[in-house]
């Protein structure tokens, strides 16, 4: 059975659609994408069209929307973890000299 939260059609061609989106955007843009989808699933919870309502009970439909929202929240959290790891790997100190010809005082 296909995963109702992240179905196989999002992985067509051997790469997940979200990974393509993530590769084409900055981390900040991808966080915004995640936040937008989180909001979408929160706002439409329990309100999806009648066709879907016939397939799933109202409570099951709401639970599925919660799971979809959580999936995007988890992706957003992973990006924050990546940013934190990058900051730890290359910390910038306030006294660090930055070679920038536009801001040289000479």
Care to describe what's here?
By secondary structure, the chain is mainly alpha-helical. The protein is built from four helices and no strands. It has helices at residues 17-24, 27-43, 50-55, 58-89. It is elongated and about 70 Å long. The termini are far apart.
**Helix count, DSSP H or I runs of 4 or more residues:** 4
Could you tell me the radius of gyration in angstroms?
A: 20 Å
Strand elements, count: 0
Q: So what's the overall shape? A: elongated
Oligomer: single chain
Report the end-to-end length measured between terminal Cα atoms: 68 Å
Provide the structure class.
mainly alpha
Structure summary:
The protein has 106 residues and is an all-alpha fold. Helices cover 59% and strands 0% of the residues. It has helices spanning 17-24, 27-43, 50-55, 58-89.
Which terms would index this structure?
elongated, mainly alpha, 4 helices, 106 residues
What is the element layout, followed by pairings?
Elements: H1 17-24, H2 27-43, H3 50-55, H4 58-89
Helix pairs in contact: 2-4
């Amino acid at each position: 059975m296909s995963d109702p939260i992240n179905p196989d059609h999002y992985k067509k061609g051997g790469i997940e659609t979200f990974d393509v989106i993530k590769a084409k955007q900055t981390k900040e843009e991808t966080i915004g994408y995640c936040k937008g989808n989180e909001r979408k699933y929160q706002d439409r919870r329990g309100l999806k069209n009648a066709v879907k309502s016939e397939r799933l009970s109202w409570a099951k439909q709401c639970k599925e929307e919660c799971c979809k929202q959580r999936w995007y929240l988890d992706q957003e959290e992973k990006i924050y973890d990546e940013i934190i790891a990058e900051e730890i790997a290359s910390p910038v100190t306030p006294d660090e000299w930055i070679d920038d010809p536009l801001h040289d005082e000479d």
